[in-house]
Amino acid sequence: GNPLYFQSARNVTVNILNEKTKVLTRLVTGPQAVEAHSQKFEVKTLSGKLLFSADDNEVVVGAERLRVLGAEGTVFPKSIETPNVRADPFKELRLESPTRALVMEAPKGIEINAEAGSLKATCRTELRLESKDGEITLNSAKIKLPNLPQGSSSSAGSRQKIYELCVCPNGRLFLSQAGTSSTCQINTSVCL
């Protein structure tokens, strides 16, 4: 009914040997670290559920949730495969690659949802939406393009705030002050 204590000024080592006295597993508890040497390392709950395991091929986290508390986040030098990436409730989720590209691939599609807030995509050079076999749908009550260039007005006295949305041959969009007929042809210098 009493606890068993192992006490040492340096370390405590527990070895499991085979019949030829070869070490199969070793547990070393020292002043700097606790080390386990074996083919496989497992941590289980009292009921036997696997929480963590590690061997030469893989590391498995069996808990319902993996939480990384470091302020700098988590670094994956190669790739990560997961069915779900989610932030804690009322917390921000950021997927960031400060020096390289960020690639998300899925054969059946990728869904990004912001049920109760906005979604923001920012980049330094070029943002591209591309669909190889389908279409791109902008489905909203309001679609704003606030920084489009404007063509020069053809009539000096006109002060109307109605514009025509024009498309250059290279795909660039611009605004041209609306007239009785299309004014896009007058302002094609914007396309250069």
TrEMBL record:
One of its GO terms (biological process) is heart contraction. InterPro entries: Sarcoglycan (IPR006875), Sarcoglycan_gamma/delta/zeta (IPR039972). It is a single-pass type II membrane protein. Coiled coil: none annotated. Transmembrane segments: none annotated. The keyword Transmembrane helix applies. Keywords: Cell membrane, Cytoplasm, Cytoskeleton, Disulfide bond, Glycoprotein, Membrane, Signal-anchor, Transmembrane, Transmembrane helix. Belongs to the sarcoglycan beta/delta/gamma/zeta family. This is SGCD protein. It comes from Balaeniceps rex (Shoebill). The gene is Sgcd.
